[in-house]
Write a structure and sequence with these properties.
The chain has helices at residues 54-62, 74-82, 102-112, 147-155, 192-204, 213-218, 226-236, 278-289, 298-312, 318-336; strands at 22-23, 26-27, 33-41, 90-91, 96-97, 137-142, 161-162, 174-178, 222-223, 251-252, 255-256, 260-265, 270-274, 291-292. The chain is an alpha+beta fold and 337 residues long. It has one domain (1-71, 120-296). The strands form 5 sheets. Strands 3, 6, 7, 8, 9 and 14 form a 6-stranded mixed beta sheet that branches. Strands 1-2 form a two-stranded antiparallel ribbon. Strand 1 and strand 2 form a beta hairpin.
Length: 337
């Protein structure tokens, strides 16, 4: 979630930022540019659904047996399913876990149905130009204001549901990511004002959106600071339609013709970098503001992925793998106690 520089409190370390930047109410890191990782549904069958549970996701996949539902292999689907559901099997306060439950074994078996599939690489919109996009569900990473319009072109539809990753309670599961690293101010710093001046420069230096093709493709992420984000999106949405010398907007098929500075082509597709519409940047703001960095522990995710591989390749049963995961994660949690 973005924050405002005006929320500067009594000390330079007491800023209101998104949850990943908090530790005992003391800010410990900033995300200069941020991106949002989300799941979308290609045909809009999920409508305006603002989130779903793991059970609802599995029901959706089961309800489309004749379709390629998700562009992932078994391991990717398991990782995807646990992004915001790890807490369903891990109690961090009690330092206990329950990976031998019927629910987790069922999830393993469900993901195992996709063990023969080769997963896709890369979640950026531009990565999708080089592959088939017939699946109903796609993990995508929004990194630039033009991505909403480009996604509609690549999937050949504007009926897209931005449903997010499945969560325990069905809330919107959008994952906020840093774009190129984070920065922090030490609580023991003797030069807090100078450190803040540097951080503030990183957070607010977004006044001029990229215009050249190379800069447009290479620039990723959205401003973290709210005021800067508002000014940045206002700037990138200026003059979204093609205008003639007489000042009239060109019309195409009864609709205003959108303005595009650049075109990107692949072997099978041509995509226009349209100037974003205000409603498109509004959607990005909604997704950013409903995002969180509170995903499960990476070490536990690594353990689950390592052990699950032996089930997906047919070496062990789901129950055996669940027991191995339970043992390793239990030891890890005890070590953290």
């Amino acid at each position: 979630m973005a924050y405002s520089c005006k929320e500067k409190a009594l000390t330079l370390l007491e800023y209101s930022a998104h949850s990943a930047g908090r530790l005992a109410e003391k800010l410990r890191r900033f995300y200069p540019p941020e991106t949002v990782d989300i799941t979308i549904e290609r045909l809009g069958e999920l409508g305006d659904a603002a989130g779903w549970t793991l059970e609802e996701m599995m029901e959706f996949i089961d309800g489309n047996p004749d379709s390629t539902v998700f562009s992932a292999d078994a391991g990717q689907l398991l990782e995807y399913s646990l992004v915001f559901n790890q807490s369903h099997f891990v109690d961090w306060e009690a330092h206990t876990c329950d990976f031998t439950s019927d629910e987790f074994i069922r999830l393993l078996e469900f993901c195992g149905r996709f063990s023969e599939r080769k997963g896709t690489e890369g979640a950026e919109i531009l990565d999708m130009m080089e592959r088939s996009n017939t699946a109903l569900l796609h993990e995508v990473e929004l990194v630039r204001p033009e991505d909403i319009a480009m996604l509609a072109q690549i999937l050949a539809t504007e009926d897209i549901s931005y449903v997010g990753f499945p969560t325990v309670d069905g809330r919107m599961g959008n994952l906020l990511e840093d774009c190129g690293g984070t920065c922090a101010i030490s609580a023991k710093s003797k030069h807090k004002e100078q450190a803040w001046a540097f951080v503030e420069l990183l957070l607010t230096g977004w006044e001029n959106p990229p215009k050249s093709y190379s800069a447009l493709v290479g620039t990723k992420g959205f401003p973290t600071e709210l005021g800067t984000r508002e000014r940045y999106f206002a700037k990138v949405t200026e003059n979204p339609y093609s205008i003639g010398e007489d000042g009239e907007i060109y019309m195409q098929d009864g609709k205003p013709e959108r303005h595009a500075d650049h075109i990107l082509s692949s072997r099978a597709l041509q995509v226009f970098f349209y100037t974003p519409l205000p409603e498109e940047t509004d959607l990005i703001c909604t997704l950013l503001d409903s995002s969180t960095t509170d995903r499960g522990g990476r070490q536990i995710s690594s353990i689950v992925a390592q052990e699950a591989a032996s089930y997906f390749n047919g070496q062990k049963t789901a129950a055996d793998v669940a027991a191995l995961i339970q043992n390793r994660v239990s030891i890890y949690l005890e070590e953290q106690n």
